[in-house]
Amino acid sequence: MSRTGLFSRAGLAVAGCVTLLLGLSGCFTERQNEGAKLYATHCASCHGDQGQGLERLIPAVAKTDYIALHRAELPCIVRKGMKGPLTVNGIAYNQVMPGHEDLTDSQITNLLNFLQTNWGNTNQPYTIREASELLGRCNGSDGQ
Amino acid sequence: MNTSFLRSAGHLLLASVLFSATAALPACTTNPEADKPERLSIIGIKHSAPRTPADTLPDPVPSFRLTNQEGKTITNQTFAGKVYITDFFFATCPSICPKMQSEMLRVYKQFEGNPNVLFLSHTIDPAHDSIPVLRDYAERLGIKDASRWHFATAPHDTVFALAHAYMASAQVDKKVAGGFAHSGAFALIDSHRRIRGVYDGMEKSEVDRLIQELPLLLKEEQEEQKVATR
């Protein structure tokens, strides 16, 4: 075998590894922390960058009983929004929350799983299938 | 003789080197205090034709008559001898308002102990934001003293014209969430109805700048009062 052949083969192997790694990192980074990113884009302006809410105007999503107690309703609340009085951690709120028709079922799942498992909430996460089923209750599932 | 001349010339040279070094030193050291303006500039829009070539100052904040969350009439007189900060919002605003008002609240808490600093939030949705709605909003935000932070309403045209005067655009836009497009700008107004600062209420760093600059204006106002009462 010639020297150049050996080198080119080694080069090919290295290149292969690099492509594989790049491809893999692509798989991981694209949707990693998607829930946190979606929260920052769609929710943080009202609910606060740490989920702290705003005084008695907008309820917190960090350390709240509501998220555990109303687990099954949350996907539809994110999809359709809500209006009217509600009680969170013993405080009555009454604001309008806009819906998010632009999010897919899987995005809503990731977003809610981020909330269910962060900032002092230690609740059971959803599977995408479960979230889609729950979204079906308000005709809010897009099947994606 | 010769050597002493050389020596003194050497001393002179050394002295001049030392002098230039010390003169150059302040330029090298970064002193953040030195970068701060001593006096806030006067900003705003000039609509009226200048009366004299020297008349280049922006228009003062126009006369206004609004109603606050307690149903009381507020005018420019309400803010006489005070400095105040304005913004534009509406109670059901789902996009930028909560963030903006939480930043405004941060400024409020910082200057809560100073009765010379007032706050004025205008609703751009007077049809929905009645006086009880505004009162509820203020109370929920934790503002019990309406004379410190007014949540005010007025007919649409009045509010939109004021928004323009305070350099915060506001208009009806059915395409945006909530139905109104408006900027999150905070304007700082002195006791002579002049705009002394405009800050993006959506940016923490900008609001930090407001918190830093407000004492400069307060100092200026205090000095003016001293001169006036002398």
Automatic annotation (TrEMBL), chain A:
<dbReference type="InterPro" id="IPR051459">
    <property type="entry name" value="Cytochrome_c-type_DH"/>
</dbReference>
<keyword id="KW-0408">Iron</keyword>
<dbReference type="Pfam" id="PF00034">
    <property type="entry name" value="Cytochrom_C"/>
</dbReference>
<dbReference type="InterPro" id="IPR036909">
    <property type="entry name" value="Cyt_c-like_dom_sf"/>
</dbReference>
<feature type="domain" description="Cytochrome c">
    <location>
        <begin position="30"/>
        <end position="119"/>
    </location>
</feature>
<keyword id="KW-0349">Heme</keyword>
<keyword id="KW-0479">Metal-binding</keyword>
<protein>
    <recommendedName>
        <fullName>Cytochrome c domain-containing protein</fullName>
    </recommendedName>
</protein>
<dbReference type="InterPro" id="IPR009056">
    <property type="entry name" value="Cyt_c-like_dom"/>
</dbReference>
Automatic annotation (TrEMBL), chain B:
<protein>
    <submittedName>
        <fullName>Photosynthetic protein synthase II</fullName>
    </submittedName>
</protein>
<dbReference type="InterPro" id="IPR003782">
    <property type="entry name" value="SCO1/SenC"/>
</dbReference>
<feature type="signal peptide">
    <location>
        <begin position="1"/>
        <end position="23"/>
    </location>
</feature>
<keyword id="KW-0186">Copper</keyword>
<dbReference type="Pfam" id="PF02630">
    <property type="entry name" value="SCO1-SenC"/>
</dbReference>
<keyword id="KW-0732">Signal</keyword>
<feature type="domain" description="Thioredoxin">
    <location>
        <begin position="55"/>
        <end position="219"/>
    </location>
</feature>
<dbReference type="InterPro" id="IPR036249">
    <property type="entry name" value="Thioredoxin-like_sf"/>
</dbReference>
<dbReference type="InterPro" id="IPR013766">
    <property type="entry name" value="Thioredoxin_domain"/>
</dbReference>
<comment type="similarity">
    <text>Belongs to the SCO1/2 family.</text>
</comment>
